[in-house]
Amino acid sequence: MNRFFITMFFTLIFTVLSFGEKIKVIATIFPNYDFARNIGKEMAEVTLLLPPGVEAHSYEPTPRDMVRITTSDILLYTGEDMEPWVHRLSGNLPSSVTVRDISQGIKKIKEEDHEHGDPHIWTDPILAMEMVDNITEAFIEADPENRDYYTKNAKAYKNKLSQLHQKIERELSHIDRRSVVFSGHMVFGYFAQRYNLTFITPYRSFSPDAEPTPRRMGELITTIKKRGDSYIYFEELIDPKSAKLIARETGTEILLLHGAHNLSKEDLKKGKGYIDIMEDNLKNLKRGLKNE
Questions:
Q1: Which of 63, 92, 90, 66 is nearest to 79 (CA)?
Q2: What CA–CA distance (Å, rounded) separates 110 from 131?
Q3: Matching CATH topology for 2-167 and 169-290?
C-alpha cells in the first residue's frame, strides 16, 4: 500500500511539473520564427537561431546551436536552397526532433542555368500562407493533443496575411509605374511576380555574395538617368555601398526595402513582425513608384 501511494505521489508531482510545458521550436530565419510564434503563442517556446543582425545566407550553426537544435521538439527551415546545412544535418538528428522544410509544395522560381530555386518565398504573402500551413502541420505532428489550438491560431494569422495581400494589391494597382530600381540581390522575385512589378538590379543572382560588375553598375546608372528616378532601394543587413554609389552618381535618394531574412537587435526587441515589415515596404514602394 505504501509503495502504491509513493508511486501515485511521484506521478502527481511529475504531472504538475509537466503541465503547461511548452514545445521547443527552433526557427532558422526570421519569417519562420515570426510565423511559428503566431501559431504556437503561449503553447510554444519559439527561438530564432539566426543571431540579430546576421545575414542569413552565410550562416552556419555553432556547437551551442547544435545543442539547442538536438534538444528541441521542432526545427523549421526554408529548404535546401536557403539552408543547405540543415539538409546535411537532418539525418543525424534524434527522432524526437520534427524537422520541417516549410517550402514543401511551393513551386520555386528557377535561376537561369542554375539547378537551385529562389528561396525567398516569404516575400509573397500568399506563399507565406502556405508556409504557415506547413508550420502548423509540424506543430500538430509534434504536439497532436493541441491540434485545435494551433489550427485556430494559424487560421487567424492567415486572415491577417490575406488582408496584407489585399492591401498591397489595392494600393499598388493605382500606380502606373511598375519598375523598381533595387541595389540589393534578387530577393523580391515572388513579390514582383505576385504584384506585377519589375525589379531592376545590378545583381544576377539570388546570392548576396555575387557582387555586381562595374559594367552592370554603369548600365544601371545610365538607365536611372534616362528614367529620371528620384529614389533607389537598398537591402537590409547588407552594406548599402552600391546604393550609395548609384545615388551619388544619379542624384537620387535611397529607401529601404526589407527582405525580412533577419532583424536588427533593436527591431527584435520592439517585437517587429513580418506584417510590419511588409507594410513599411509598401509605404516606401508607393513613394518610389510615384517618384514624389
A1: 90
A2: 19
A3: yes
Per CATH, the architecture of 2-167 is what?
Answer: 3-Layer(aba) Sandwich (3.40)
Distance CA 32, CA 257 (A): 19
Quick: pLDDT tens for 112-149. 656 779 999 999 999 999 999 999 999 999 999 999 99
- Which CATH architecture fits 169-290? 3-Layer(aba) Sandwich (3.40)
Confidence at 10, pLDDT banded by 50, 70, 90: very low
Instruction: Please calculate the CA angle 206-209-213 and round it to the nearest 5 degrees.
Output: 90
pTM of the model: 0.89
Domain residue extents for the chain? 2-167, 169-290
Q: Quote the pLDDT of residue 16.
A: 39
The rounded distance, in Å, linking the Cα atoms of 276 and 210 is 29
